[in-house]
UniProtKB/TrEMBL annotation:
It holds the Pfam family Bac_luciferase. GO terms for cellular component: cytosol. This is Luciferase-like monooxygenase. SUPFAM superfamilies: Bacterial luciferase-like (SSF51679). CDD domains: Flavin_utilizing_monoxygenases (cd00347). It comes from Halopseudomonas pachastrellae. One of its GO terms (molecular function) is oxidoreductase activity, acting on paired donors, with incorporation or reduction of molecular oxygen.
Length: 332
């Protein structure tokens, strides 16, 4: 059973709370990165989303530079860069620059989804939007990071020859199998896609081939977590995310709402089922309750690391939640 050294990491979507601005969300992200670094968290990742009024991390590599400049030890990464939105050369140059400035602290997590709606994906990609060319784009990107070969005419400067760890992210089985076949670490998006969790982990481990980057499978699981000093308060904090997802499925995405004690008045039974099913990969409660939930989760999945998303409306409550979660893992 994992103990005090079990790796915990942070996934921050840079949520914009109602009444706040993108600038506030980005400053809060840095404050949280500094806080979780002091607590001993391993990584702090931000995600690429576009045309979403409640998320401030669209320019993901720019946000990473801001976070890396304001921290000292915690690894800063993308969870993830949606590779088909970009030319591989651009990503190699961006992450090569980050690695050059903050050596040994940069992770490149990659996804193949657009991270947005179809119209915005078309505006970003100016071509195919199905992600079917992701394996070819990934191969091109990995070649750009490889050491230069004699006579090589195309190089990422900086980027070529730098050790930027690549992770594949997934919410189904496609990237799990690809990560296994290539010998790359794999991060599963259990925070919004719990149904495919066990099949994805199984396929990743079964298909794993050792590589120069990784000798054995390494799986990280994304979860949501809302911890407070008492269980009622924890469920109250979780209601902000529940409302945000309810608005999303209604086709009205927006900023992160303040929490409520009365979710039942806000959703219909079928909406409640959809929200709670999608967000079932969540830890909610006080230290004692979450301790039991977490021990069972780690026993069932056998993952090597957790990356935790806590979209909590109040910044101080969000920081406290991460502190309590760290206490939980130390007690396991």
């Amino acid at each position: 059973m994992p103990g005090s050294n079990f790796p915990l990491s942070v996934l921050d979507l840079c949520s914009i709370a109602e009444g706040a601005t993108a600038a506030t969300a980005l400053h809060n992200a840095l404050e949280l990165a500094q806080h979780t670094e002091a607590l001993g968290y391993r990584r702090f990742w931000v995600a690429e989303h576009h045309n979403m009024t409640g998320i401030a991390s669209a320019a993901t590599s720019v946000v990473m530079g801001y976070l890396a400049a304001g921290t000292e030890r915690i690894r800063i990464g993308s969870g993830g860069i949606m590779l088909p939105n970009h030319a591989p050369l651009q990503i190699a140059e961006q992450f090569g620059t980050l690695e050059s400035l903050y050596p040994g602290r940069i992770d490149l997590g990659l996804g193949r989804a657009p991270g947005t709606d179809g119209m915005t994906a078309q505006a970003l990609r100016r071509g195919r939007t199905d992600g079917e060319d992701f394996p070819q784009m990934l191969d091109e990107l990995r070649q750009l990071f490889a050491p230069a070969k004699p006579g090589q005419r195309l190089s990422a400067v900086p980027g070529t020859g730098l050790n930027v760890p690549i992770w594949l992210l997934g919410s189904s089985t496609f990237s799990a199998q690809l990560a296994g076949r290539l010998g790359l670490p794999f991060a599963f998006a259990g925070q919004f896609s719990p149904d495919y969790l066990f099949s994805a982990l199984r396929l990743y481990r079964e298909s794993f081939t050792p590589s120069e980057q990784l000798p054995s499978p390494y799986a990280m699981l994304g979860i949501n977590a809302y911890l407070a000093d008492d269980r009622e308060q924890a469920h109250y904090l979780a209601s902000s995310h529940q409302q945000a997802f309810l608005n999303l499925i209604r086709g009205k995405p927006g900023q992160l709402p303040p929490p409520t004690h009365d979710m039942e008045s806000l959703w219909q039974p079928h909406e409640r089922h959809q929200v709670m099913s999608t967000l079932s990969g969540s830890l909610i409660g006080d230290v004692e309750a979450v301790g039991g939930q977490l021990a069972e989760l780690l026993e069932r999945t056998g993952v090597n690391e957790l990356i935790v998303n806590s979209p909590i409306f109040d910044q101080s409550a969000r920081q406290h939640s991460y502190a309590l979660l760290k206490r939980v893992t130390e007690a396991l």
